[in-house]
Sequence to fold (358 residues):
Amino acid sequence: MTVNKESLEMIRDLSLANAPSGFEDEALEVVRHYAEGLGEFEEDHIRNLYISRKGNSGKPLMMLDAHADEVGFMVHSIRPNGTIRFTNIGGWNPATLPSSRVLVKNAEGKYIPGIVSNKPVHFMSQADRDRKIELSDLSIDIGSTSKEETEKSFKIRIGEPIVPDTPFTYDEEHDVLMGKAFDDRIGVAALIETMKRLEGEELAIDVVGVVSSQEEVGSRGAQVAVNHVVPDISICFEACPSDDTFTEAYAIQAAIKKGPMLRFMDRTVICNPRYQRYALDLAEKLGIPVQASVREGGGNNGAKICLSDKGTPVIVVAIPVRYIHSHNCVATYHDFNAAVDLAVAIVKDLDPEKIMGF
Fold:
């Protein structure tokens, strides 16, 4: 497999962008850079970014969706000892957080390094050690010694975002991507790469890319986007939690290096079964590796998209990611590339008659 260096750089830059739900601006700057020339940009007040493909001419409209936000935290208040009380933005497992590095945005827009702290083990009672860790047990320590120092010297104020402080790496020999925010920046990269590969192609449908906001707190951006775009059909690019390190072999449905996962359902959506089977059959015909799944939990923007207009047909093309919603994620370029291959094939193959059949 040949790795496109520009695509890899795009995944890296998107991963490193600091942009939890509600604070997507930095991620959108990266999107604008890599999507330059693909079409007309439009941005709304909830920070959805729309990319209308060159050549759109009133044909049935395909909406490509991927969300720009990542799970993160927000400054709740500052304790007298100078440490920061924080709350979550999106779903976290508190047990993964102690001793993790984070970046706290200050009033000047700078990111201040900090450590998620808990009571040292030396001072824990047996009851402390046995008790499940709660977010309220934790603080963020930036090295301050007082509330005044945190506010006046470090310039930290309530309501500011906090993100994981995680490097991005790629092991080309083994095709292993490591970093933060692959949910859903790797999906955003797939959206942009799909539109790049469609440049200059004569299509039977129009295409608009939507880099949506606030998925991690309830798919709020997607709700606004579908009302604005009113698509006839959609592909939702996602990052899905990989289940290949803890699930019995027969039940694994989202392994890394096996291609994107297309879900029939999850807690929020039942994807259009005719469209879903069409996509799986097309992948098989073209030799594109894919996985199918039935999820009993989770959710995604497809839940909002399928309720728009007359019930827009949607599928979720999800790139498997290990340790999703944590500081350190693992994914592969192979799965990213296969997701793009499938999306490009679908867009090229669709026509108004096929869409009506879904």
About this structure: The first helix runs from residue 5 to 16. Residues 226 and 305 are 6 Å apart (CA to CA).
